[in-house]
C-alpha cells in the first residue's frame, strides 16, 4: 500500500471541513504523478477517502475563495476519476469493498453531482453580473459532463440511470426558464435517455412511473411552446424523439393529450433542424389512429394557432408595456424616495455636525469667558468686585432683552409676510405689464422707423444727398464744442457762487419784510378787536361828568393796553386758544383737515422766520425801482386776501 496515501488519509481525518477542498488538491497531484493509476484508485477507495471527497462536494463553497470553480473543475473531476474504475467482485484485491462501492459510493457520487449542480444553479440565479453568470453555466456544464462520464463508464448499472431520472434534484434542474441551463439540461436528459436502452427488455425510462414520464413530456412540450431559442427547440425535439423511441406509449400520449403539438412544431421550420422535426411529426402521424392530420387540417390548425399567437403576442406586449410603465413609475418613485431619504440623512448628519460644532464653540467661549472673568476678579480690588459683577449682570440682561426683541420682530415680520408677498406679486405684475406695454410701443416705433428707411423723397437724388451730407459735416466741424480750460471753469464757478449768494441774501431780506408785515397785520387786528370791545357807549356820553370821566379812564386804559409790548403775544396766545377749542370740538375728518392746514402754516412760519434783512439789502431793494416792483408783486401774491375788518363788521 502506498505510504503517501496512508499519511494523507491520517491527515484527512484531522483536517477541518473548510480546509478539505484545498487538501484534496494534493490528492489530485498525487494521482497524476503516480505510474499505476488504477492501483492508486483502489487504495483511495479502500482507505475510505472517496466517501469523504463525495461529502465534500455536498458542502457550500461560498465562503471559500473561488470555491465553486474549485468544486466543479477540480474536485468533481477527481471524484469522476476515482469512480470511473473497473471493479471485479471476484478479484481478491477488490472483493472486500466492491459491494460497498456499487451499493453506496456510486449512488452517493451521483447524488453529490446533482446536489453540486443544484447549488451552482442557485448561485447563478442570485448573481446579477453577466460574465459571472457565464462562469456558473460553464461550471454546471463541467459537472454534468462528469456525471455523464460516470454513467457511460458504468453503463451496465441501470439503477444509476434510474436514480438520476427519479431524483427530485434533477427534476428541479430540468424545470428552469433560463435559456442556457434549459439547453444544458435537455441535452443531458437526452443523453441519459439514450444510455438507458437495454440490449434486451424495456428501457429504464419505460420503467418509470406514469406521472414522472408525463411530467418530463409536459416540460418538453412547454419549452417548445414558450421558448424561441433555436438550441432549446432543437434539443427539445431530439429529446422527444428519444422518449418516443424508448417508450411507445409516449406517442399515444402526444397524440391524445397534445393535439396542437404538430401545429406548434410548424413554427420551428427553417431553424436548421428540419430533419428532426420531420422525424418527430412522422412518429406522431404513425401513432395517430384516425386523426385528421392531412395537409388541409395542418394548414387550418397552423392558421388558427398563428392568429392566436399574434393575439396573445399583442396582449402580452400590451400587458408588458403597462407593466413596464408601472415598473418604471415604481422604480422612479422608489429612487426618488431613496434619494430623498439619503438627502435627509445627509442633512441630518450635517445639521448634527453643525450643532455639535456650535455646542463645542459655545462651551469653549463660555469657558474662556469664565476664565477671563476669574482672572479679572483676581486682578480687581475687593471693593470693586461687586461693582464689576453688577455691570456684567446688566450687560447680560441687555443682551437677553435684545435677542428677545429681535425674536419678536422676526415673528411679526413672518406673520405679516403673506401680505407683503401679495403686494410684491402685485407690484411685479404691474411692472411686467408696463414693461410689455413699453416694449410694444418701442416695437411699433421701430417698425415705423424701418418703413421710413425704405421711403426716399422723390426729389432727393444721390448728388443732392451727398451735397446735404457735406453741408451737415461742414456745419458740425465749424460749430464743434471746444474744451474749456481750468481758468474758464474757475471763472464760471465764481460767477455761479456770486449769483447764488445774491439770491440767498435777497431772499433773506424779503423774508424779514414779510415777517414784519405779518406782525403788523396781527397787531392791527388785535388793536381793532380791543377797541371795539372796550369803546365807551353812547349812553355814557349823554350822562353826567362822573360817568364821562370813567369812560375817559377806560380809554386811557385801552391806550395803555394797546401800547404795551406784550399785546402781540397776547393776541397770538388768544388765537392759539381759539384754534385749539375749534380743533377739540370739530369732527374727526375736520380735525385731519385742520392738522394739515396747521402743518402748512408752520412750514410757512418757518420759511418767514429763516432769514433777516440787513441795512444794505433794504437799501438795495428801495433804491432799485424794478426790484421793488418785483418784490411788491411777490408780496401781494403770498399775502392772503384782505378780509373785512372787525370795525366794518360792527358798523
Automatic annotation (TrEMBL):
InterPro entries, per the entry: IQ_motif_EF-hand-BS, IQCB1
A GO cellular component entry from the record: cilium
GO molecular function: calmodulin binding
Pfam families membership: IQ
One example of a Gene Ontology biological process annotation: cilium assembly
CDD domains cross-referenced by the UniProt entry: IQCD (cd23767)
Protein name, entry field: IQ calmodulin-binding motif-containing protein 1
The organism's taxonomic lineage, starting at the top: Eukaryota, Metazoa, Spiralia, Gnathifera, Rotifera
